[in-house]
Amino acid sequence: MLGWFLWSMDWRGLWFVLGEVRWAWVGAAAAVVLASYVCHALRWKVLLRHVDPDIGWSTLWGATTVMWGFNTLLPLRAGNFLRPAVVAMKRNLPYTTLLFTTIAEYVCDIFAIIAMALWMLALLPADQQGVLGDVKKYGSIAAVAFLLGLVLVVFLTTRRARAAAAALLRPIPSERIRLRLLEVFDQLVHGTAAIGHPGRLLGALLLTLGFWGGWLLGILATLRAFDLALPLAASVFMEWALTLSMLVPQAPGFLGVFQVVTEEALGLFNAPPAKAEAIALVFWTVSFVPITVLGLINGSRMGLSPTKGARAGALHDLAQRADEP
Q1: CB atoms inside a 10 Å sphere around CB 304
Q2: Alpha carbon 155 to chain centroid distance?
Q3: pLDDT the model gives residue 317
Q4: DSSP at 22
Q5: Measured between alpha carbons, how far is 249 from 291 in angstroms, rounded to an integer?
Q6: Which of 172, 211, 318, 325 is the most buried (most CB within 10 A)?
Q7: What does the DSSP assignment read for 115-138?
């Protein structure tokens, strides 16, 4: 995907467009997106409150920067596995429980996807035709599907879910395997317990809106940097498409997919191709480079690095802690 994007790029037009960028707006975009990661760290604190109410900000922020930084440098969102490792080793907490809080975060992100989809659908004209008309049609279907998925995950936090899990596992002849699987299920439920607490869930959802709202402001600032006047629906659609694409594990830093999705989203609103390509590169830079630098700095202080040997050592330590209570 990245190779196709680079091969199809109009390099002469790109350099011309970059020469006219208002860099103050790019700096503003970088600042607001970096600030949005604070909301991401605070959201995790809310979702972890039942696991460790005394976890400090420095630990949370360091783990969050490591997660995003290493996601930029390693494939398949490997940073998502290092973030709970950082907290598990610092706070002597069960790694599996911390890892399963990722599901609670996905619930919050699904809520954001639904909210963005509904907002985008409201912004698009009722008689929209062509590709955007199809987006409006299938966006409605996707919103309903994600809503059903959210309801399913919320069900996991109920007592009935454990009874259902025990009934499904009953045919397994080995009691040891059944108990082990139920133990994993209990850790999953414990990791997502905040979803079943209305107050904490509301706080996490508000912080989710803060996080993705920061990205939306970053998109608007980036468009302003390129003096590109597009309707608000274009920015909301671009963020919605990027959010969907980033849910799937992929290449390091979402390279390729991020750029192609950005270019195609802006193209639907008739953005000039050269500007769409430049925005794809610049917005990726402001979204991931500052947080990656912070992640590498914090990771090096913890003895982590993107090298294979360092990752193997960290994962070895994890394996010894994974089953600790």
Answers
A1: 21
A2: 22
A3: 54
A4: -
A5: 19
A6: 211
A7: HHHHHHHHHS-TT--HHHHHHHHH
Contact 224, 26 (CB under 8 A): no
250 and 257 Cβ atoms separated by less than 8 Å: yes
The ranges assigned to domains in the chain are 2-94+198-321
d(CA 258, CA 2): 9
Q: What is the DSSP string of 296-313?
A: HHHHHHTT--SSHHHHHH
Contact between 76 and 45 under an 8 Å Cβ cutoff? The reply is no
Taking CB atoms within 8 Å and a gap of at least 24, the contacts of 273-278 are 273/10, 273/13, 274/10, 274/13, 274/14, 274/16, 274/17, 275/17, 275/226, 275/228, 277/5, 277/9, 277/10, 277/13, 277/14, 277/17, 278/14, 278/17, 278/18, 278/21, 278/226
The pLDDT value recorded for residue 66 is: 94
- 10-residue mean pLDDT profile of the chain (325 residues): values are 60 82 97 97 94 93 94 86 90 88 86 85 72 69 72 68 84 89 81 80 93 97 96 94 84 84 92 92 95 94 69 52 46
